[in-house]
Amino acid sequence: MSKITCLINTRKVTLSYADVQKLKLSDTRVGNDGERWLFSYRKKTGTRVAVPLLPLAGDILDRYKDHPFCINHNKALPISSNQKMNEYLIEISVLSDVVKTLGNRIAKRTFATTVTLLNGVPIESVSKMMGHTNIRTTQLYAKMLDEKVGKDMAPLRAMF
């Protein structure tokens, strides 16, 4: 499995390791907007997942559609183990000069905050993409943003 595979979970999709591991290429289809989407069900909760794929995530999935492991096991990605996937995420962080130790939880948090909420995606949509059954869970991610906003505004407050 290539290190780039882990990017599907790092920045573009909100799935847990178990959900990425069971992902089939047939789980991606054209949505009602004419764009490519991922449709599946969460392993943990059985909650339906419907996530529009950003182009890079689609490219990564396409890269592995003819991979022997994927063909033989009817999988979208050649995922071996959660431990190995986290090792790849650590390598990605080193190559990208990211000072945090990346893992699946950090990846989901990054998607919720940096990719979606900070770019104006409504919290209700983020909650649905995250597979949360209660929006309060998603609001925990928004609370983290409030802390960052407070820190970012501190120098401006000092000026006034």
Structure description:
There is one protein chain. This protein has a three-stranded antiparallel sheet with strand order 1-2-3. It is globular, with a radius of gyration of 17 Å. Helix 7 crosses helix 8. The protein is mainly alpha-helical. The protein has a single domain, classed as hpI Integrase, Chain A, CATH 1.10.443. It starts with 6 loop residues before the first helix and ends with a helix. Helices cover 54% and strands 9% of the residues. The protein has eight helices and three strands.
* CATH superfamily membership: Intergrase catalytic core
Content-based structural category: mainly alpha
Low-confidence stretches: 1-13
Q: How far is the N terminus from the C terminus? A: 52 Å
Across the major sheet, the strand order is: 1-2-3
Q: Quickly name the level 1 CATH class.
A: Mainly Alpha
Counted up, domains total 1
Mean pLDDT, nearest integer? 81
Gyration radius from CA atoms, angstroms: 17 Å
Tell me the major beta sheet: 3 strands, antiparallel
Q: How many helices does DSSP assign?
A: 8
CATH level-two architecture: Orthogonal Bundle
Summarize the structure.
With 160 residues, the protein is mainly alpha-helical.
Observed structural traits:
160 residues, mainly alpha, hpI Integrase, Chain A, 8 helices
